[in-house]
Amino acid sequence: MQQPGSLLCVTLGSPSGRVAEQLLARGWNLSPATDLVAAGRLQAHMQFTLGLLVVGAEASVTEAAMEACVAASPGAEWVAVCGAQSLESPAFRELVLGHFFDHMLLPVDLRELEMVLGHASQRAMLRHRNEAARRSAVDALGMVGQGPAITRLREQIRKVAATEAPVLIGGESGSGKELAARAIHQCSQRSGGPFVAVNCGAISPTLIQSELFGHERGAFTGASSERRGLIEAASGGTIFLDEIGDLPLELQTNLLRFLQEKTISRVGGVRNLHVDVRVVAASHVDLAEAVAVGQFREDLFYRLNVLSIDVAPLRRRMEDVPILAEYFFQRCVAKGRTRVRGFSRQALAAMLAHGWPGNVRELFNRVQRAVVMTDRRLIGPTDLGLEAVENAVGTGLDAARTMAERDVICLTLTRVGRNVTHAARELGVSRMTLYRLMDKHGIALESESRPHAAPSWPAATPPIRMTPTIPNADPVGEMLKKSAAAGYRPDWSGAGKPAGRA
Questions:
Q1: Separation in Å, CA 84 to CA 53, 80, 87, 352
Q2: Is the pTM higher than 0.90?
């Protein structure tokens, strides 16, 4: 296999053959090919970081064949050397713009060519390092990221996977709770068994009992044969009960019996069936608060909450946003041909400035849309549907002020029991002003935004940095001083969108 930095030189057309000879004479580690067939044989056995396509006037190769040659060396940077007449072809111009690092015209100045190849080599090495870092960021569990939040989550998953006790996963919608549940299953001794995921909120209340526990023949109209339920189908493995907070109260009783006795009874059945299943449950609402308001059984909560882990929202691990975006980008471009090569610097800045109310699911959707819709080689902020960040320094200061204002509001609301009237009085603003500020920062009172739903999981509420209460002090100023002293790093919380809006 060729050493890193090796060059594949493909010459098409007899007048251009001297370029390869001159580069060999100047000491380049070069593998020459005089046609695409020979190039394909070299690419099948060697790995190249640089490619040079020299197209003479007599070349009679289609642009599609050239593109296939370029694509056969993934990770390599290509430079085109061609005659001016070649650029008259729209298809060839599109090929150069979409797949080549740079291009030069014949006759070529050898010193300028070597300079361009040197720059392309440096870019290829940078791409190789970035690809290696991306691979190391994706572990065997399929979890992407290197920040402290995802590292802590991996550690917790490995710990709880070593036991058979039920696990309760908390986190906002779209944050990756099912991925964490699958990782627990893969790390456990049940990895060889089935993993059955059930969205408790997506099944009709009239059918959910039959879906979970199964039914006997003739149990109800339309039950022409007996049927195993999802719990029984997961025997020997793991059942994941997503959004278990949406489970009807009458079904919670049956589930409690299953957790206690490890037996189920099908609808219309008279016998108990033993089932060997581990239960992993998840909810975006705080089940402890749901218990307090009578929307969830207390005994079932304690049966499920033997081991608990929390999946942090994306805005709490912004350091992983570029890694996740690149991971999703590679997944999208692997499914079809595209000229898109990655993200522009402005796009990365815009992603880091966004609050991601839809979490990882929103990021994937935006990247997928950008790959399809963009007309450029590098994805920009508008392709992602995000606003461009004009000034990084100014944005950082604005973010510090925004975060301080948001945290003071959260602190005050918590101290007064989330009573808006009392909080507005303490902050010295009107109730309407406070409501506008809450909407700006994405702070929602569950009783007002979703009157029939249980309060959201604590992770959905921004963490509050507790500071001593100082009479007549400026809370915003104190918090800014504290942030600066601690080496503040913005987390872009909320990003000016109400909670729950994508």
A1: 15, 12, 6, 42
A2: no
